[in-house]
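Summary for the funding panel

The consortium committed to producing paired sequence-structure records for every protein in the target list. Below we show the first two records in order, beginning with the earlier of the two.
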Amino acid sequence: MQEPESAAFKIRVCMGGRCRMNFAEDLLKIAQKAAGESASVAVEPRPCLDQCEKGPNVEIVQAPAGEAVQILNGVTPNQMAQLSRSLLEEKA
C-alpha cells in the first residue's frame, strides 16, 4: 500500500471503541484491499472521531492539505467498497 504522504486522498477509519464494536476493522480491511498499491488513495486507522453514536465512522482527507473533506457515519461494508472505488476512479 502507498505511503499516506504521497496520496491524493486518505481514507481514515475510526478505531474508537464503539466503532470497533461495529466492525470498523472490517471496513479498514475492505478499503485497504480496494486501494491495493494505488498511489492516489491511502488507507489508515485513526483515533476516535467523537461521533460514537453514529459509527462506524470514516473520515476522507484530501492530501496534502490534510483537511477533512467529509466525515461519513454508519458506514457499511458495501458503502466502504463503493467509496474506495469512487476515490480511485476520481484520481485515475
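The next record, for a separate protein in the list, is shown here:
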Amino acid sequence: MVLHQMHPQHKCDKCSKMYFRVQDLKEHVNTAHAGQEFPCGQCAYVGKSARALKHHGLLHDPPKLSCTKCSERFRWRSQLAAHSCK
C-alpha cells in the first residue's frame, strides 16, 4: 500500500485533523490536546512532547562534527555539508 495514494482514515475527535496511521493520530492527540508540558532542565524551553524536548536537548550538547580543513564544528551533517572553507 502506498500512503500518498490513500485517503487518511484516522480522524482526531477534538479538531478533525486526519491521519494515515493510528500512531500519528495518537502522537497528535498527546502533543496538541493533552496539555502536558516537557520543560528543559537547562533553559526556559517547554516542549509539547518528549520527542520535541529530546530534539531541543541537542542544542545544549557540544557540536560533534568538525570540518577537516578548518576544524569548525557543527551539530548536523547538513550544516557540515553546506559549509565551505577555502
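Regarding this second record: The longest helix spans residues 22-33. Helices lie at 22-33, 50-57, 77-82.
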